[in-house]
Amino acid sequence: MRWLEGWESNRTLRSYALLFLVVATFTTLLPGVDFLSARTLSSVFQYFATIGLVALALGLTMIVREFDISVAGMMSLGGCIAVLYGNEFAVLGLFLAVLVGLLGGLVQSYLMIRFNLSSVAVTLGGLLTWVGLAYVITGNQTIPFEKMDVAIAINTTWFWGLSPRSIVVIVLFLMASAFMAFTRVGRDMVAIGSHRHASIVAGLKPNKILMGVFSLSGMLAALAGAMLSFGLSSASPSGGVTDVLVPAVAAAILGGVSLSGGVGRPLGIAAGMLILCVTRTGLTSLGVDPYVHDVVTGCILMLVAVIDGPHLRMRLYQMTRVLR
């Protein structure tokens, strides 16, 4: 079993190896196109900025062996709040959106802990609630964002295809990675996700960690929605929930986050998101129909599932031994 333990420790490295393979594949398939040009990189990083924070939010909850489905709804609600209250002062709209995300995460985690409920059930209700609230506060209308200077500034490409929006997302990924690697709370998150009962016996406080993780998840999703709405100069309650949730889940899994919890790193999630971004941009450059994107992504996910099969069996075996 030792080789599987080594494989587990290199899951993030595996994600970046897969990213390199995807980039090399499209570079080969597009010989007459500079696939690493500033224009292509801009397309990659703009999509990364759109979905990246949602993938990070969802991935963090998966690491503690939970699942926050509501991130897609909170992204929509956060975008609507940011535009509604940010037309005079953009910072105010951004602050209120993140505050609502924080409160939403606190409410959901409190219900889960207080009544011992499944995170899937609670956050499914949260998803419907946040989307419904977005429709209510906007009157089912697209709300324009009048500060065009903010919209232009947040999407302006600086270097290597990076815009302020994508730089913010990258910085948050780096901060989350450092937090997970160098703080006790970060290590406790992994321990709680690996075996909750054992973590309680060891003196950890899972409830506080869960409330913190879900609060952070809500804030990240709301921030993602706010920045997207500012960049698009409008907010809509029908922001395409499935277009956000499915890529976020796929990015987390491709990034090495285990569905059984206790495994995963923010930098791995970033790699998983970049794999999807590069694949999407590459297929578009090849002139492939949009629905083929889903087919290719699905095939990649199934390949990862096959590769992770032995690892999941090993974790089940280890947990069974602990419980005996």
Mean pLDDT: 88
Q: Structurally, how many domains make up the residues?
A: 1
Q: What structural category characterises the helix and strand content?
A: mainly alpha
CATH architecture: Orthogonal Bundle
**Outline type:** globular
Share of residues in strands: under 5%
| Strand elements, count | 2
Number of helices: 14
What ranges have pLDDT less than 50 throughout 5 or more consecutive residues?
1-8, 315-320
CATH topology: ABC transporter involved in vitamin B12 uptake, BtuC
Radius of gyration equals: 20 Å
Classified by CATH, the class is Mainly Alpha
Biggest sheet architecture: 2 strands, antiparallel
Order of helices and strands: HHHHHHEHHHHHEHHH
Please give the share of residues in helix. Answer: over 70%
Biggest sheet strand line-up: 1-2
Distance between the termini: 19 Å
Structural description of this entry:
The chain has helices spanning 2-9, 11-29, 38-63, 71-84, 90-114, 119-138, 148-155, 164-182, 184-194, 196-201, 206-232, 241-254, 266-285, 290-323, and strands spanning 143-144, 234-235. It has 324 residues and is mainly α. It has one domain: ABC transporter involved in vitamin B12 uptake, BtuC (Orthogonal Bundle). The chain has a two-stranded antiparallel ribbon. It is globular, with a radius of gyration of 20 Å.
